[in-house]
Amino acid sequence: MDKNQVAQALEEVATLLQLKKDASPFEVRAYENAARTISALDDDIERLVKEGRLKGIPGLGPTITRRIEELVTSGRLSFLEELRAATPSIKLELLRIQGLGPRRINAIVDQLHIASLEDLERACKEDRVAALPGFGKKTQEKILQGLAFLAEHGHRYLYPVAEAEGLRMREALASRPEIVRVQVAGSLRRRRETVKDIDIVASVADDADSAIRQRVMNFFTGQPGVRQIVSKGETRSSIILASGIQMDLRLVTDRQFPYALHHFTGAKEHHIPLRRRALSMNMTINEYGLFRGKEPDLELVPCKDEVEFYAALGLAYIEPELREDMGEIEAAERGELPTLVEERDLRGVLHVHSVWSDGKNTIRELAEACCERGLSYLGITDHSQSVGYANGLSVENLQRQWEEIDRLNAEFAGRLVILKGTECDILKDGSLDYPDEVLARFDFVIASIHSHFTLSPQEQTERMLRAIANPYVTIIGHPTGRLLLERPGYTLDIEAVIEAAARHGVFIEINASPQRLDLDWRYVRKARDRGILIPIDPDAHSIAGLADMHYGVGIARKGWLSAADVLNTRPLEELVALLQRRKASR
């Protein structure tokens, strides 16, 4: 249980309290404040609970402290479960629509007597929602857009949610004496940006009896945080977790484990051509094995792991992230698969916000955190002047920030170099939010879109292309502006953007924030093939946000990137030369 999960639970309590007709605004505010307090903690939440150090932290009263301790120690929060059970199911459904908060949900349900999402869609199309006080046509249209988005994405979960659940269960199962091997499989193992459910494959000894299998399944279905047991058997059990995500456990013999792990990792699109290849070699693949010959005279091809499985098919090992039928089988046959980038290859971070704009930590605190992570450079990129909601920096404040960075660079000499950057807004017409004479003084410039998302595809593309053509732009930030499971990106010709970036020598980031993961991995490889170096950027607004580099590396791996394809795997001297290359060639 980490602090983000605890904060999310507290935020959910506050939201569900607001859905009650007799909600106390003071109680709601207490949980909202507690969630912010927990999010801002630098220490490990489990350690704080174990050592009894939550007591006395400002913003955490005794009742909330006890409930946090219950959640961290047991994985469950009975008060939250009671609130969920007492909240009408339609209100829980409406919470999933982007932009609908408790006040509007209560108005819709109480005044229009909405009982389903279909009812709400009908009420919108009949203009009954627009007629409610405080709503109007624009709100009604956004609700319809939210309903359409929910229909397409509503049963998926962000990668970090699924990863935390999957790793926790894998660790629990690995502690059991009956288990020989256990691994997370499915789209989670392939590091897809969103996940529908979680597959876990585990093995027991080849001679394990029914009683052993039953003990494992009892342990699995009895874990903390299990909301519902969907099914339970000796080879497969399925549960619904408190987060709402479904988890399946497949239990096989250890001899079957490599084949089952491969099968349940997927993707189906990868399996189809792989099975065709096997048939051409007089072999058959299924979840229980790789067999030579034809029925009924099938002979198992023994494989101790997936490396041997692929070798038996005449292929180099294909990493799970690449198993999407994007040419990986042909590359494995030719021996041309890349050695994928790893987190340990990263030497620094280039997209970080401090308290100078909308970040939570000082530059000094961020620098110390980077040193602790063994990084050698830190790019500070606070927002530009027109971004009032994020406390964007005026030119005068920029000068003061640069003076602070100079002082800190002198202090951290030999440990870390702090680079002067900006996340500069791309304005509606494609110009940048600082004049050229200011842009020229930065070490590097990340140019990003934060407004006017509804421009036509042609206008949005031209806007981005004009920004790319600016000789002071170094990196394009979160190039499509998407927020996963919340909103689609703005519509533009991303291939034209990649082509222009390649022509002008501009880098395109993988924004590692798990809500973004933008550039999409499908385009990452296209950018790589055009010779664009791709920084993996955390877009961190706190020390905790630096850890999001983990998710960006996953997307980089899915995009076939090696360490050589990633900008911030470069040592400092080479990085600085690359950042200055375009400005120097003006």
From TrEMBL:
SMART domains: HhH1, POLIIIAc, POLXc. GO terms for biological process: bacterial-type flagellum-dependent swarming motility; DNA repair. Keywords: DNA damage, DNA repair, DNA replication, DNA synthesis, DNA-directed DNA polymerase, Exonuclease, Hydrolase, Methylation, Nuclease, Nucleotidyltransferase, Sodium, Transferase, Ubl conjugation. It catalyses: DNA(n) + a 2'-deoxyribonucleoside 5'-triphosphate = DNA(n+1) + diphosphate; 2'-deoxyribonucleotide-(2'-deoxyribose 5'-phosphate)-2'-deoxyribonucleotide-DNA = a 3'-end 2'-deoxyribonucleotide-(2,3-dehydro-2,3-deoxyribose 5'-phosphate)-DNA + a 5'-end 5'-phospho-2'-deoxyribonucleoside-DNA + H(+); a 5'-end 2'-deoxyribose-2'-deoxyribonucleotide-DNA = (2E,4S)-4-hydroxypenten-2-al-5-phosphate + a 5'-end 5'-phospho-2'-deoxyribonucleoside-DNA + H(+). The keyword Hydrolase applies. Residues 2-324 form the DNA-directed DNA polymerase X domain. GO terms for molecular function: class I DNA-(apurinic or apyrimidinic site) endonuclease activity; DNA binding; DNA-directed DNA polymerase activity; exonuclease activity; phosphoric ester hydrolase activity; zinc ion binding. It comes from the Bacteria. Its EC number is 2.7.7.7, 4.2.99.18. Residues 348-428 form the Polymerase/histidinol phosphatase N-terminal domain. GO terms for cellular component: cytosol. NCBIfam families: PRK08609.1 (NF006375). Repair polymerase that plays a key role in base-excision repair. During this process, the damaged base is excised by specific DNA glycosylases, the DNA backbone is nicked at the abasic site by an apurinic/apyrimidic (AP) endonuclease, and POLB removes 5'-deoxyribose-phosphate from the preincised AP site acting as a 5'-deoxyribose-phosphate lyase (5'-dRP lyase); through its DNA polymerase activity, it adds one nucleotide to the 3' end of the arising single-nucleotide gap. This is DNA polymerase beta. It comes from Thermogemmatispora aurantia.
